[in-house]
Amino acid sequence: MHFLEVGLDWVLPFLVVLAVLVFIHEFGHYLAARLCGVKVETFSLGFGPELFGWFDSHGTRWKVSALPLGGYVKMFGDADAASTPGEGLATMTPEERAVSHHHQPLGRRAIIAAAGPLANYLLAIILLAGLFATSGQPVTPPDIGMVQPGSAAAAAGLKPGDRFVSADGQPVRRFEDVQRIVRLNVGTPINLIVKRQDQLLPLRVTPKITDIVDRFGDHHSFGVLGVGRSGVDYVRLTPWNAVVQAGGETWSITSGTLTAVWQMIIGARTTEELGGPIKIAKLSAQVWQQGGALDLINFMALLSVNLGLINLFPIPVLDGGHLLFYAAEALRGRPLGQRVQQVGFQIGLALVFTLMIFATWNDVSSKVYAMLKWLVT
To answer: What is the C-alpha R_g of the chain?
Structure first.
């Protein structure tokens, strides 16, 4: 009975969230392919053996597969789910070439490849815009309500009543703007401009790096100033303004994610924060249990942006890898050789699997260490 409860608490939220995001991503590819005149043979939610499925009137096999960690759209002319060129492309009839993925003009193939990540970005904007237009966007004045004694803010001379004007050269319109910049900081000084009464004061502050452990035992490190906001309001926006603000929020999530990834690459941020399916499942369960529907929608928007962004990375097998090959084709005036593409896909597949294994190890390593420590003490 306990196992069933754990399954419902963890697995169900994870599957619901992931299924929606993957379906939207793959439907972007599917819709673009159909609009470009390409025949779609398979639309799969998940990998591995088919659990159930059906054929539509266009001959596409829609199916749900056993391993629910992704999905794919296989088009006519593809050898596999990664859209590697299939055999027999050179001997296709004119009718087959007309609906073959790999015989489409370069521009159409690029549109099909980019449509999946763009669908994820569009979903995020729709979800956030819906929140901003109905429940309201959190709008916090960039005013300091309190300064914690002994904090980085206190050492820099910040005082209650100060208003943030800019941080690291970026204009500050909301308290959340400062929070984003500070949280991504890895202990390097930040140049601030604050307004105190009628004066603009330049200040330099170095956030303190704080490590917290969530209820799942995962460690998270981020910068902290030690200031509190003066208050928060939720402002309901008009549909147009909601879309504009949702687009800006989506861009902020993208730039913040890229900054964090770059910090991991250069060693400024620990890779322990990189999570895989287990971490996503835990976060999904946490939002599902502790938050409401609005928190879940916001979480899905965040994951949707990250799914779209990761797929745009220029790694063969991912959509960004296909776009990289198409860019090389545009420069060369002809496609890369099939051998080069096959090697590229093999390298890309190895990189993706290595990253997945590493991220999954991050998910479980702290638990393994805790268990070993318990056994030897």
So the answer is: 24
